[in-house]
Amino acid sequence: MVNSSVNQERRRDLTKIPPKIYIFDLDGVIYRGSEPLPHASDVVSELRNRGRAVYFLTNNSTRSRNDYASKLSGMGIHTKPSDVMTSAYATALFLKHKNVNGVSAYVVGEDGLRKELRDAGIKILGSDASSVDYVVAGLDRSFDYDKLAAAQRLIIGGAVFVATNRDPTFPIENGAVLPGGGSIVSAIETASGTTPIVIGKPETYCVQMILESAGCSADEAVMVGDRLDTDIMMGNRVGMKTAFVLTGVCDRDDIPNAPSDMHPNIVISDLIELLDEGWASN
Amino acid sequence: MVNSSVNQERRRDLTKIPPKIYIFDLDGVIYRGSEPLPHASDVVSELRNRGRAVYFLTNNSTRSRNDYASKLSGMGIHTKPSDVMTSAYATALFLKHKNVNGVSAYVVGEDGLRKELRDAGIKILGSDASSVDYVVAGLDRSFDYDKLAAAQRLIIGGAVFVATNRDPTFPIENGAVLPGGGSIVSAIETASGTTPIVIGKPETYCVQMILESAGCSADEAVMVGDRLDTDIMMGNRVGMKTAFVLTGVCDRDDIPNAPSDMHPNIVISDLIELLDEGWASN
């Protein structure tokens, strides 16, 4: 009996298949502000050495993929823009995929979002446009009543309302926060009476774009994040393995208070723990 | 049998008591923009001649009671500031009643709200305040990200969040709308993670202040309004008679689609129909 059980265990080990792809959230996972988090660079290198694909996924729509690739490379994590998915780039893909011919958008957002949309061939119109195909909203630290009124008018006039994300807050240094894209989206939603299509986490469009690009299925992928209500929920929704890292905005005590669809597969204090891949192997 | 029935009917008529107080919403009921609506002045005069008290109640927090009294008087409806209740003045009363000693507030709002708060002895602090007792938010056509961030910071820091109203839109001429106070409140609610105390309609604080001031009970009062989701709902909540007038933003077809707590006692096309008071008599 004992021998048979050991043999079965060994057979399971031999047939275990490690993940093919790791997707990391950025702020609170790879770095905090401008400071890299412990072992981030080493862990990414080691996973790549093992042949795993590594992607980075952020809801932050204020910067372009180029900006993030530069920032990560500057921290010793060599990164191409194509390794990065942002809610801004995913929004550009979404608008592009929906429409073969060029579309127009009114944008409540910052330079990163505008760049991604322009690069995707989307025509960005000003607040005096009489109509547009889409109103796209994300974090905009120059948000004001006139932009809110223009978004309202264009959505009531028939534009489709798309939100890069609904993050209520935007973390800055020392644990402080600023209003996130979600607070701007809420204002437009109330004023227009229209619920937006949401692109960012915990919605699944961004991760589906990554999996498609990598040619992987969700059960071959691991999502590593510091937020139960975005990273972990999104990973669970698509059927990825989920690793909850305690270096960001949430802590272990948040898990029992969260709904079960936000519960991670594992909880880690340091990214180095990811290198024991047994938990995530099929 | 027939005689007895007639006598009973007569007795009921003789014991009918007409309403003591009429409360009118303003925009869409008494006037539309700067144009008085048909019979508004005549109806108010006739009700006053009959000894009924007449009050005006608006969710608009951008002007003071003085401003509304001047506007109405200029339309031939002689009005004292004390005949007018606004969500701004009610908010000032709410803060004053809660605190015998002076309190401080950070205000996201316009001049009317600031004036009412200042007149009530509330100390208004700027966006650089380290803490305040209350954050008060209403329609602010100079709303911007910095105000949103200040409101968020102060509420997270412990300030009580009070909203003058949650109207999603603000009607302007020709049926067009601008974002209402409710859209600004939504942004602050999302950013701060805090649900506000709401003062304006359909909440009942404003009307309770009117009834208290008039020394009347709700069943002696009639609410006349053009919005099912604010005027009529509020009137029903406190047990007033409710008259829905079709000169504003809603029409008769909205009634079957509205929940039963928004159904009025009568529907009128013109304020003159109020002068047959039989429907509202006890």
Question: Could you explain how this protein is built, in words?
Answer:
The structure is a homodimer of 282-residue chains. Chain A is of the alpha/beta class and 282 residues long. Chain A has two domains: 2-59 and 202-280, Rossmann fold, CATH 3.40.50; 89-198, Rossmann fold (3-Layer(aba) Sandwich). Chain A has ten helices and 15 strands. Chain A has helices at residues 2-15, 40-49, 65-74, 87-98, 111-119, 145-156, 181-192, 205-214, 228-238, 254-257; strands at residues 21-24, 31-32, 35-36, 53-58, 84-86, 104-108, 123-125, 134-137, 160-163, 169-171, 177-179, 197-198, 221-225, 241-245, 266-268. A six-stranded parallel β-sheet of chain A has the order 5-4-1-13-14-15. A five-stranded parallel β-sheet of chain A has the order 7-6-8-9-12, sandwiched between helices. A two-stranded antiparallel sheet of chain A has the order 2-3. The interface between A and B is medium-sized, with 29 and 29 residues.
Instruction: State the assembly state of the protein chains.
Output: homodimer
Helix content of chain A: 25-40%
Please state how the strands of the largest beta sheet of chain A are arranged side by side: 5-4-1-13-14-15
- Poorly predicted ranges of chain A: none
Number of helical segments of chain A? 10
Gyration radius from CA atoms of chain A, angstroms: 20 Å
